[in-house]
Amino acid sequence: MAQPTEPTEPFRLGWEEWLSFPKLGLPALKAKIDTGARTSALHASDIEPFGPASKPKVRFQVHPIPGQYNVAIPCSATIVDRRDVTSSNGETEFRYVIETPIKMGGRTWPIEVTLTDRTNMAYRVLVGRQALAEDMVVSPAESFCQPEMSYEVYHSAQLREVVPDRALRIAVLSREATNYSTARLVAEGEKRGHVVEVIDTTRCYMAINAMAPEVHYDGTRLPRYDAVIPRIGASITPYGTAVTRQFETTGTYCVNGSEGITASRDKLHAHQILARHRIGMPTTAFAASPKDTDNLIGLVGKAPLIVKLLESTQGKGVVLAETPKAAQSVIDAFRGLKANFLVQQFVKEAAGEDIRCLVIGGRVVASMKRTGAEGDFRSNLHRGGSAVPVRISKDERDTAVRAARAFKLGLAGVDLLRAESGPKVLEVNSSPGLEGIEKASGKNIAGLLYENIEKRVRPTPARKTRTKKR
Asked: Which pLDDT value is given to residue 1?
């Protein structure tokens, strides 16, 4: 004969309780338990839908502590519905509905929550009867039947630990949507649950004002992005950096800032930055007057020499002059074209090889050795060079990191030459290609970039506000 089962204790709730929404990154909220209301509601501001129509998402901000608007937690979730909700005062509002786990005491279960502005409400969350299970009993005369929590978590380092990965809205500034690097960034971002949009930089235009700076695109204002990944081509550097600077003005996190992109593209400026930070590089000289040609060559040393256009990319505009006479001829030719150039020491012991170090978030995540095609001193992959993975020394690693930091770049390809006196920085690339380094290293470089972006856009603990004593 089966033994009768013991009745389980009801899950007791008071009319107010502490709870958390773990998936939204909200570790502590004080809520009103209202059985008179059917629908649950969460205070949210800056509510904005995004993503494809087949799987729409919504992002919003929550000010979890009533009266303290310096604490703001960015959240995102999948939209499950949008419906009319009538409040207790009889007003009807069309709200987004999300589903997310709620945690009270030691119990976690999924509930539907509508998003609305509860600025004037005493509680940031209202839990309606639809969210309560059958074994839950609400005692209107009691408060905090479940363990109490504290808003202190929003002021401590613990906040970073409890904030989950959330869907981000990310823009890739690129004129080539089918380019390998751009396509990889889109595919990897979507694989991680983010919404990634490719924006043609030249089709952006800007509203520049003090109160509400905006970026527009094809007749509409662009939405607020969590992050922007600039892939600015050399031919549009001035306009591309202006667009990037406008995103920076709106407060958007840019993986590479306009200042670093601009400096890295101007070879003279770049070498001056390297020199200022005492970072090893080939001896370099620059002059504007044709009368200084011999002195210019003398500053660098004996031939062979490198003559390089200031805005050269992918090895274009870089010439090896093997004799002083050849150097003078190349310099005269460049001056005849009214081109800006510099003269640089040729590091013979590098033997047509260089090291590309890929730096993300202040650390080298991959490196490869590039070797030039037969008879070519340039090792660029775009010019037929080949690449293999390579182990780098601590000195080379430190040099690459210091170079990326000097330009304030979150993503950088730092090219090094192995000279007898130590590593020499040849170039710092602010839009490094991903194809060669991913294939050579076998690493998911795009994924590592997104890991860094996700860390950067997570909320940071807020400082406590001090009230003056009267």
From this structure: 47
No. of H helices and E strands in the chain? 10, 27
Secondary structure class of 400 (helix, strand, coil) = helix
What is the end-to-end Cα distance of the chain in Å, rounded? Answer: 74
226-243: b (≥16 Cβ within 10 Å) or e: bbbbbbbbeeebeebbbb
Inform me whether the pLDDT recorded for 40 exceeds 80.
Answer: yes
What pLDDT digit, counting tens, does each position of 124-139 carry? 999 999 999 989 999 9
Q: Which two tokens stand for residue 365?
A: 């995540």
The span from the CA of 343 to the CA of 281, in Å, is 13
pLDDT of residue 123: 93
Token digits for 329?
């001829």
pLDDT tens, 311-365?
Answer: 655 556 788 888 878 877 887 777 777 777 778 888 876 667 889 999 999 999 9
Which of 2, 88, 103 is CA-nearest to residue 39? 88
Domains and CATH numbers, the chain: 11-162 (2.40.70.10), 169-264 (3.40.50.20), 283-344 (3.30.1490.20), 352-456 (3.30.470.20)
**pTM of the model as a whole:** 0.78
Could you tell me which of 382, 350, 383 has the C-alpha nearest to residue 369?
A: 350
Tokens standing for residue 14: 């008071």
Say whether 363 sits in a helix, a strand or coil. strand
pLDDT digits (tens, 9 = 90+) for 161-183: 666 668 899 999 999 999 999 99
Which of 283, 256, 284, 286 is CA-nearest to residue 407?
256
Strand partners, 414: 357, 428
DSSP string across 36-69? T-SSEEEE-EEEEEES-TTS-EEEEEE--STT-T
